[in-house]
Every structure is written in C-alpha cells, then in structure tokens.
Specification:
Layout lengths: L8 H10 L2 H15 L13 E14 L6 E7 L4 E7 L12 E11 L2 E5 L2 E4 L3
Parallel strand pairs: 3-5
Antiparallel strand pairs: 1-2, 1-4, 2-3, 4-5, 4-6
GO molecular function: exonuclease activity
InterPro entries: NA-bd_OB-fold, NucleicA-bd_Rv2694c_prd
Organism: Petropleomorpha daqingensis
Length: 125
Amino acid sequence: MTEAKSRGWFSRTLERLTADDHQIDAEELRAEAASAGCEPVSMCRKGKVVTVTGRLKSVVYTPRETVPTLEAELFDGSGSVTLVWLGRRRIPGIEPGRTLTARGRFAAFDGKQVMYNPWYELGAG
C-alpha cells in the first residue's frame, strides 16, 4: 500500500524556488485545467469526446493538395494535442501563446494526438 506524503510549506516553497520555468508553467497550466473541469491531455483516450484547455505553443498553416489545414499545438501541462481545422487558412485569435479551451473527439494520426475541427473558446490571455 502506498501512502501519499503531504508536503509542508517549506518543502513546497523550496521546490518552487529551485524548479525551472517550464516546470512551473506546466504546473500552473495543470492547475488551471483542473479548476476549469477539463480532462488532462495525458489522460485522454482515442475515440472519446473530451474538453481540454491550455496554451497554444505553435500554429502552423499547412497547405495540402486537397484541402488547406490549420494546425495548432495545445499544451496543458500534462501533454500536447494537435488541433486541426480542415479547410481553414487562418482563424482570428488562434495564435501562439493564446489560452484556449477545445472540445471534440480525441484521435491519433501519425503517432500524434489530434482533434479535428474542434469546438473552441478563446481565453482572455
């Protein structure tokens, strides 16, 4: 039986002072996702309809032979998912650094976790 140890104020403060910026950012994003009631990306499974929230790390327009595609990488602190909008070259407000909540069916393509044409809501930041 494993018992979770509760950390004291001093150890939490010391850990926070010695952590790098990426760890702190990831921890804050995980906390925001949990408080928003969204699933962590690392816990999402293929085929399920999920709601995730996080920050856009990159946005890429990918011209394809048949249909233009806008791809954005959403990071929530636990993992990343690629949001794909088929038939779109640009969506106002979809830009790196923007906070976004997306809802759609979770899938996998070429070893990446993706959501196609998700419903989305832009955050204030």
